[in-house]
């Protein structure tokens, strides 16, 4: 994740050669839940830009968050809808398996 953060902060287009091995490992994990590295980067950008408005500052369960995603996602966050759906699906899978 440091590689993705560095790439975003310095507005780089690609990862360095040293980072590519770690990105390949991340890609393998993400593939199992149908999330691309690019979508993961988008999700990290969303987290970095704060999601207080989306969550309205309160704890919510996964069902409530998914419902809000379908009904109340602000227009400026619509580009994050698919990666968020995949993230919530992955969280659900990982929660069930633990």
UniProtKB/TrEMBL annotation:
Q: What is this protein called?
A: Uncharacterized protein
Which organism was this protein described from? Rhizophagus clarus
């Amino acid at each position: 994740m440091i590689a993705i953060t560095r790439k975003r902060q310095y507005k780089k287009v690609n990862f360095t050669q040293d980072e590519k091995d770690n990105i390949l490992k991340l890609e393998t994990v993400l593939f199992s839940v149908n999330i691309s590295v690019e979508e993961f980067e988008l999700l990290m950008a969303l987290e970095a830009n704060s999601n207080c408005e989306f969550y309205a500052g309160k704890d919510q369960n996964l069902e409530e968050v998914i419902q809000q995603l379908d009904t109340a996602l602000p227009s400026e966050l619509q580009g994050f809808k698919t990666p968020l759906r995949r993230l919530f699906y992955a969280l659900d899978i990982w929660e069930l398996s633990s």
